[in-house]
Amino acid sequence: MGITYVQGTVRGPTGKEAVVDFLVDSGATYSLLPGPVWRKLELEPKRRMSFRMADGTQLVRQVSECLFILAGEAGHAPVVLGEPGDGQALLGVVTLENLALVFNPFSRTLQPMRMLLV
Questions:
Q1: Vertex 101, ends 83 and 104: CA angle to 5°?
Q2: DSSP state of 3
Q3: How far apart are CA 31 and CA 80, in angstroms?
Q4: What is the pTM of this model?
Q5: Contacting residues for 107 by C-beta, under 8 A, at least 6 apart
Q6: All domains of the chain, ordered by start, with CATH?
Q7: Does residue 58 contact residue 35 with C-beta atoms inside 8 Å?
């Protein structure tokens, strides 16, 4: 599939914003913000959660929430508060679903989700 980045804006509860280049990670459930970004937004941990990495290791991280603005859509979603060594910002599927967006692997863009009400 290759590596794809999309640019988005994140906003914390105090109104502070940051523009972030997210790595689109179809294997990630939650999005992740590196420490310098979530601290700038003044995000506060809401709970601790356990995550299993692709190599099988298990990590415990703090989770908060923030406003994501991507591809013209905005909405709140949970976000993992990255720690040193966690790497770059990741865009997970829960954030995409909350914003009713899907990743098109052919055009490598975010597009509106086809919504069904059944």
A1: 95
A2: -
A3: 6
A4: 0.90
A5: none
A6: 5-112 (2.40.70.10)
A7: no
CA–CA separation, 13 vs 45, rounded Å? 12
Q: Cα separation of 35 and 41, whole Å? A: 10
14-71 pLDDT tens trace: 999 999 999 998 788 999 999 999 999 999 999 999 998 888 889 999 999 999 999 9
Amino acid identity for residue 93 in this structure? V
SS3 state of residue 40: helix
Which tokens hold the place of 62?
């703090």
In this structure, which amino acid lies at residue 55? Answer: D
Cβ(79)–Cβ(31) below 8 Å = yes
What whole-number distance in Å separates Cα of residue 113 and Cα of residue 110? 9
CA end-to-end span of the chain? 32
- Residues 91 and 95: their CA atoms lie apart, in Å, by 7
- Where helices occur in the chain by DSSP H, the ranges are 35-40, 93-98
